[in-house]
Amino acid sequence: MTEIQSLLLLKSALESADMHGIESLLADDCVYVSTGRGTIARNRVEVMDFLSTMTDSIKADHVPVIGNVIRVDEVYEEDALYRPGKLGLTIAYEVGDAYAYILFIDMDDDGRIERIVSSQENYDSTRVNLRLHGESDTKPYAFTSAPTTVKDWMTALSMWLETEHIDIDDFYQYIDEDTKVVFQKGDAESITLENGLDVEDYFDQLMNFYVDESPHIIRDEEDGLILTYGPMSLIVALNEEGALALISMYIDTRDEDESLDDIGYIEEVLEEQQVQH
Q1: CB 103 within 8 A of CB 89
Q2: CA nearest neighbour of 126 among 65, 74, 64
Q3: pLDDT-derived band of residue 137, with 50, 70 and 90 as boundaries?
Q4: CA–CA separation, 178 vs 30, rounded Å?
């Protein structure tokens, strides 16, 4: 795993209040450190226990978590742990520029997280547009194990939208032959990709348009997960066997402006393909 991929997986886990899949990212001697409280957890088991307690509390209180990948621009404390250029993850509990703290991670030589730092130090930072900076010289994100939960799929979709740096073939190998994708823009008639082959042929056209925002996983009143990305929202459903059954994508056009005009071609292309089928 790269630093960015690991940060995005932590972001997904915190936003969804579900630490499933995080343990495999941690080194055996991983530690969790708070700049205000010192060392809180001293190995992988303790770190997972602490993170799980954190997400249990978030879920119980139904607190919305918003994470954004940032880059440190300026440091205001001489003894601060990190210097300009370091990537981190701001954690906020409400929409806006304010955040509660920054999570930093340090990776070991095997690509695992050896330290997680919760920092309240005074940094000046900016959100990183990962689609512009990209990771073209690194290996694209791929599943480390077969996706088995809604959160697994939400995570993959979120990373695809945020980075455009995902192993698409790896993603498609877990698409079931009965998987459907339903796409709707505003009040227009919905478009349905009826099976796995259609999904493989056309799904990337829906995913690879650009919105200058960061995707976030939010939880509804029943703790269902919804992935939001600008005006688009995505919901995932599994079938009784646990395979991916449906991805529903909806674009809200109530406040539509010129910035959305460039995605109209998606409807036209898919409608043409549906007629041919």
Answers
A1: yes
A2: 74
A3: low
A4: 41
